[in-house]
TrEMBL record:
Protein name (database record): Citrate synthase
Pathway(s): Carbohydrate metabolism; tricarboxylic acid cycle; isocitrate from oxaloacetate: step 1/2
InterPro entries associated with the record: Citrate_synth-like_lrg_a-sub (IPR016142), Citrate_synth-like_sm_a-sub (IPR016143), Citrate_synthase (IPR002020), Citrate_synthase_AS (IPR019810), Citrate_synthase_bac-typ (IPR024176), Citrate_synthase_sf (IPR036969), Citrate_synthase_typ-I (IPR010953)
Keyword field contains Acyltransferase: yes
Organism placement in taxonomy: Bacteria, Pseudomonadati, Pseudomonadota, Betaproteobacteria, Burkholderiales
A Pfam family reported for this protein in Swiss-Prot or TrEMBL: Citrate_synt
Keyword list, A-Z: Acyltransferase, Transferase, Tricarboxylic acid cycle
Family that this chain belongs to: Belongs to the citrate synthase family.
Keyword Transferase recorded: yes
Reaction(s) the record says it catalyses: oxaloacetate + acetyl-CoA + H2O = citrate + CoA + H(+)
GO molecular function: citrate synthase activity
Gene3D superfamilies found in the cross-reference section: 2.20.28.60, Citrate Synthase, domain 1, Cytochrome P450-Terp, domain 2
NCBIfam families, per database record: cit_synth_I, PRK05614.1
């Protein structure tokens, strides 16, 4: 962090002494006011529910400029990474800070692809779930359970443990997601095949059966890989902050990532792709394009509680750059599968057009986010809707672990412990039960 020459001065109207607060400059983006000594010097906390104005850490991994609609991983624009690099190169970049050269890439792929298998015991663990359990419930359990298998990599203060648990998590997530799916539909688990690409292997574990040969379709594998790349990291979002907070207690990485999976499940975060596809399907059932106007009116009516899922973002106040790339992938996948006239895609395009012109959305800077199109792509590939968020979790695992490892490596890191503004009862005496 670079100190700035400028200082912020906090003054109080009741005559309490004012306080100078240091400012720090990032390499890009807004400066931050350092309030760490505020409580010690003034006896006051800051109040910022939802962290609207709070930088919870300093980070070198991902940068978002929400007004411009810009997303950078380690300085590289997402548009360039999505076109020039595959997901494992992106993982390497997020974990180690630089893009790999050819031999580093080959080494990393080899490492990841040789940790894809999970302990055989895992399938017995899975068997305890109901067949109709939500995949995110299953994933939360399975990822947490990994900590019971890898006692040799749970010491977060050991950099080698941190590295091997990162590799294990990235390698095993596709296997776990595919197992969760196969379990739901009652098919045998398909073991990983390590000579395939990361995304190709995932598609095979999802869609192959032991009865037939399976050759992943290149266009669909590329689309899957792009979904992974676009979801790989997104700075201090709710699930990443959860992982950091959970990890700040010194817990093991598998437990911290399980907390991230649980947080991602919510419909305001990772669950939005599932919610978005369900919304499109509902509008389609009720009459499709002809009913968009009615639906948009409901969204604008605050009392209806209806939101346009896949629209809006806490940080992007412009078109989400990932949504543009996902829209492109949507065209490619539907073209490859001969689904150019897919009614849900047509509906999504029309809904987007109407919403982008509507004063309600314009005034609030509500634009499509990545989830608006990713559900359509995944559905076309054959992924069942309830599995969408699990795929998001798979992809985001690298971001979570890179952020967690960055935090642990930071000499300034402390256990996360927010404070509160208490507005409850002041001290009072407990009355005997007969008098209450
Ligand atoms: N539909 C209708 N109105 C909306 C929407 C929406 N999708 N999103 C925000 N608004 C309105 C909101 O009602 C408020 O209006 P007003 O100022 O009149 O009260 C205004 O826009 C500002 O909204 P906010 O709730 O203060 O914004 P936020 O930053 O707290 O919420 C959000 C961000 C993503 C939770 C929200 O936009 C949302 O719920 N969107 C739908 C869910 C979704 O698509 N989530 C995926 C996010 S991208 C994937 C990821 O990174 O996890």
């Amino acid at each position: 962090m670079t100190p700035s020459d400028v200082k912020a001065t906090l003054s109080f109207s009741d005559g309490s002494p004012s306080m100078d607060l240091p400012l720090y400059k990032g390499s890009i983006g807004p400066d931050v006011i350092d309030i760490r000594k505020l409580y010690a010097q003034t006896g006051k906390f800051t109040y910022d529910p939802g962290f609207l104005s709070t930088a919870s850490c300093n980070s070198t991994i991902t940068y978002i400029d929400g007004d411009k609609g810009e997303l950078l991983y380690r300085g590289y624009p997402i548009e360039q990474l999505a076109v020039n690099c595959d997901y494992l190169e992106t993982c390497y970049l997020l974990l180690y800070g630089e893009l790999p050269n050819e031999s580093q890439k080959a080494d990393f792929e080899d490492k990841v692809m040789h940790h894809t298998m999970v302990n055989e015991q895992m399938q017995f663990f899975l068997r305890g779930f109901r067949r109709d359990a939500h995949p995110m419930a299953v994933m939360t359990g399975l990822v947490g359970a990994l900590s019971s298998f890898y006692h040799d990599s749970t010491d977060i203060n050991n950099p080698e443990h941190r590295e091997i648990s990162a590799i294990r998590l990235i390698a095993k997530m596709p296997t776990l997601v595919a197992m969760a799916y196969k379990y739901t539909i009652g098919q045998p688990y398909i073991y990983p095949q390590n000579n395939l690409s990361y995304a190709g292997n995932f598609m095979r574990m999802m869609f192959a059966t032991p009865c037939e040969d399976y050759k992943p379709n290149d266009v669909l594998v590329r689309a899957m890989d792009r979904i992974f790349t676009l979801h790989a990291d997104h700075e201090q979002n709710a699930s990443t902050s959860t992982v950091r907070l959970c990890g700040s207690s010194g817990t093991n990485p598998f437990a911290a990532i399980a907390a991230g999976v649980a947080c991602l499940w919510g419909p305001a975060h990772g669950g939005a792709n599932e919610a978005c596809l369900n919304m499109l399907t509902d509008i389609q059932k009720q009459g499709g394009v002809a009913r968009i106007g009615e639906f948009v009116s409901k969204v604008k009516d605050k009392n209806s509680g209806v939101k346009l899922m896949g629209f809006g973002h806490r940080v992007y106040k412009n078109y989400d750059p990932r949504a543009k790339l996902m829209r492109e992938t949507c065209h490619e996948v539907l073209g490859e599968l001969g689904l150019q006239n897919d009614p849900l895609f047509a509906l999504a395009m029309e809904l987007e057009k109407i919403a982008l012109e509507d004063e309600y959305f314009v005034a609030r800077k509500l634009y499509p986010n990545v989830d608006f199109y990713s559900g359509i792509v995944q559905r076309a590939i054959g992924i069942p809707v309830p599995l969408f968020t699990a795929i998001f979790a798979l992809a985001r695992t690298v971001g979570w672990i890179a952020q967690l490892n960055e935090m642990i490596g930071d000499p300034e890191y402390k256990i996360g412990r927010p404070r509160q503004l208490f507005v409850g009862a002041t001290p009072r005496d407990v009355k005997p039960i007969a008098q209450r």
